[in-house]
Specification:
heterodimer, A: about 325 residues, alpha/beta, Rossmann fold, 8-stranded mixed β-sheet, 3-stranded antiparallel β-sheet, 9 helices, globular, B: about 270 residues, mainly alpha, MetI-like fold, 11 helices, elongated
Chain lengths: ~325, ~270
């Protein structure tokens, strides 16, 4: 079966600093894939480069192919990209408070999403479709007459989700969609995201730093650190038997059931963008690092299930 | 409840009075503003002629009322010209890539460095003195300040997530400019329009004073000032009435601009 999204050797650089290096990523039809990592690990840049929405002097190279699109997404001109965006590929951003135009009614904004790509025609059909989309995200039909400032953060994020799903995209990218929301609202929004993509059999690429969210939403997960994918695999496997030392540290840090009073942390900080060490990007913070880590570790296993570490957890320390 | 902002109230009231005065002058003035009556030339203010009469015996109050029409008309057209050219230029400069934006803004600087009044006089010399020439010249001279203000506002809007979201939804740049950027800089346009209006009022008076503005007999505050020159010592009221009218009008539009700025800028709200 053909994958919905195939990314090969994605590099993102600003001037000569590498921000994202050699990212390989596939998302199958209807699959829900998590992309996890700390701030500055290149998750959001990866997402923006798929859409071709990187800031002006940030450059992406490599290969990005999307099902139903007969051209390469990296380096495609604006005209071609704008036909893909919002139709086959759409995105939910992190900050719901600013993601809607404050001067337009909700209904007009949803209608706009459909009118751009001519997926519905006629005033009545568009209005009915907008009302149905709102109903799907459990907002009353009157919401379409409201302005964004009249809605709460959670309601706005549901509108943003409705917008993103308006044209039944093949792939939905969510960039930290619940980070800015209350925990109680988070659960509802996550539920709506999963229901939304399942109902349309859309694939989902879910970006977050929250392991618990990935565990509930996704089937497969990729762990990013320092602009590289360091481990990937099915959620259950990666979270119970991590192999990369970074994943191991991340899991230990989010383990709330340790008897220890002190919170476990990964020592040190994420290096500033573009200043990652050569070889294994994690070696400056890794307890297991040795001289061999100065060379870039090879990828073990398949792209969908593997890791890149010289001293994987679960194996005897060499 | 939101406390009323004094400059907005006072500025709005002054502008309102001028607008009402101009509207009333269409249907009623105490006397025909252009009616010459040598028998009562240079009459002092009295119950018949509240503000007196000028050297031709024309009623000053009537002239001021009719003159406010000229003032408002020139202001509206000049600001309209400035906004119609300046706003798209500003948005264009904010949205285009570096070199195009630089081209627009440096041309803008060039125009800004050129004295506005000199430009208007040049226009008058080339195309002949008329209200139309004055309006267009003042409008063109006001384009750079519009473009500058709108560019900075539009650049802020371009950085917002809803513009990014619109692009992620497949919107092309042109519709983004019209539907997302423009509506979110309207407050800036309103403020700038009101400030430019004050400048236009002053510029029209100056041009008419110099003889490059509204030609006689159409009453204009600037030309009333000019005609009063020879009587500056014998009948200073002839300079005072139109002078005060100009000052009040400029003050009114400036206050309105300040008030609108305070009203629209949420960052200033806490300080009040």
């Amino acid at each position: 079966m053909n994958d919905v999204l195939t990314v090969r050797g994605l590099n993102v650089t600003v001037r000569d600093k590498a921000l994202v290096s050699d990212v390989d990523l596939t998302v199958g039809p209807g699959e829900r894939v998590g992309l996890i990592g700390e701030s500055g690990s290149g998750k959001s840049l990866t997402a923006l480069s798929l859409l071709g929405l990187l800031p002006e002097d940030v450059v992406a190279s490599g290969s990005v192919r999307l099902t139903g699109v007969d051209h390469e997404l990296i380096g495609a001109d604006e005209r071609r990209m704008s036909r893909v965006r919002g139709l086959q590929l759409s995105m939910v951003f992190q900050e719901p408070m600013t993601a809607l135009n404050p001067t337009m009614r909700i209904g007009d904004q949803i209608a706009e999403a459909m009118l751009i790509h001519h997926t519905r025609s006629g005033r009545g059909a568009v209005r009915a479709a907008a009302a149905e989309l709102l109903e799907r995200v459990q907002l009353p039909a009157q919401t379409s007459r409201a302005y964004p400032h009249q809605l709460s953060g959670g309601q706005r994020q549901r509108v943003v989700l409705a917008l993103a799903l308006a044209n039944d995209p093949a792939l939905l990218i969510c960039d930290e969609p619940t980070t800015a929301l209350d925990v109680t609202v988070q659960a509802l929004v996550l539920d709506l995201i999963v229901k939304g993509v399942v109902a349309r059999s859309s694939a989902l690429l879910f970006i977050t730093h929250d392991l618990a969210v990935v565990a509930t939403v996704c089937e497969r997960v990729l762990v990013m650190y320092g602009g590289r994918v360091v481990e990937s695999g099915p959620v259950g496997e990666v979270f119970t038997r991590p192999r990369h030392r970074y994943t191991e540290g991340l899991l230990a840090a989010s383990d709330l059931e340790t008897a220890d009073r002190r919170l476990t942390t990964i020592p040190g900080n994420v290096p500033p963008a573009g200043q990652f060490p050569s070889g294994c990007v994690f070696r400056t913070r890794c307890r297991h690092a040795t001289d061999v880590c100065a060379t870039t570790p090879a990828w073990f296993g398949t792209p969908a299930n593997g890791f890149a570490c010289h001293h994987p957890a679960g194996a005897a320390d060499a | 409840m939101r406390r009323l902002n004094p400059s907005l109230v006072v500025g709005g009231a002054i502008v309102g009075i001028i607008v009402v005065m101009a509207l009333v002058s269409f249907v009623w003035t105490p006397y025909d503003a252009t009616f010459v009556d040598p028998a009562i030339r240079l009459a002092k203010p009295s119950w018949q002629h509240w503000f007196g009469t000028d050297k031709f015996g024309r009623d000053v109050l009537s002239q001021i009322m009719v003159g406010s029409r000229t003032t408002l008309f020139v202001g509206v057209v000049a600001v309209g010209v400035a906004a119609v050219i300046g706003v798209p230029l500003g948005i264009l400069a904010a949205m285009t890539r570096r070199w195009a934006s630089e081209l627009v803004m440096r041309t803008n600087d060039l125009l800004l460095a050129f004295p506005a009044l000199l430009l208007a006089i040049m226009f008058g010399a080339v195309f002949g003195a008329s209200t139309l020439t004055a309006m267009v010249a003042i409008g063109i001279a006001s384009v750079p300040s519009f473009a500058r203000v709108i560019r900075s506002g539009a650049m802020q809007v371009m950085r917002t997530e809803y513009v990014l979201a619109a692009r992620a939804a497949g919107r092309r740049p042109w519709p983004i400019a019209v539907r997302h950027v423009l509506p979110n800089v309207t407050s800036l346009i309103t403020v700038q329009a009101s400030v430019s209006f004050a400048i236009a009022v002053l510029a029209e008076a100056a041009l008419s004073f110099l003889g490059y503005g509204t030609p006689p007999p159409t009453p204009s505050w600037g030309r009333m000032l000019q005609e009063s020159q020879e009587f500056l010592f014998s009948a200073p009221r002839l300079a005072i009435f139109p002078g005060v009218a100009i000052a009040i009008a400029v003050l009114g539009f400036n206050l309105l601009g300040d008030g609108l700025r305070d009203r629209f800028d949420p960052k200033l709200e806490d300080r009040r």
